Give the backbone structure.
Amino acid sequence: MVSIDPNTKEIVTTGRRKTAVARVRISPGAGKVTVNGRAFDNYFCLEDQRTVAMQAFVVTDNENKFDVRVKVSGGGLCGQAVALRHGIARALVIVDPEHRPALKAAGYMTRDSRQRERKKYGQPGARKRHQFSKR
C-alpha cells in the first residue's frame, strides 16, 4: 500500500516481514523517528536493529532529511526492523523515483516472504521427530 495523505501531505506506505507489519508515514523534516509513539532509540534497543531499519536512508543519502512516524505490529523486533526498512524504501521511491535502482540493487524493495513452518500434529515441532526406538 502506497498513498499520500491529503490532509498532512505525508507519504504513507506499508512494509512487511514474516508477520510484522510496519505502517510508515514519511514527511520532510530533521530526521526525527518515532515508533509506536516512542523514540526510535527507545523502541529498538539493539544497534543492529537500528542500523537495519535506517539502511534505506543510508543507501539514498537521505539521512536526517525526513521525519518518520511508524506504527508497527506483529512479529519480533528483528522482523519489525526489516519491515520498517521495507516501508521506508517504498516511501523514498515515491519521493524520488531515481532512488529505485539503488534500493532495488540493495534488496530493500522486495518483501522477504519467508514464513515459519507450521508444527505438525503428533510431533514436537515443525521438523523435529520423536526419537526412534528399534525395540
In short: Helices lie at 40-43, 47-53, 55-59, 77-95, 100-106.
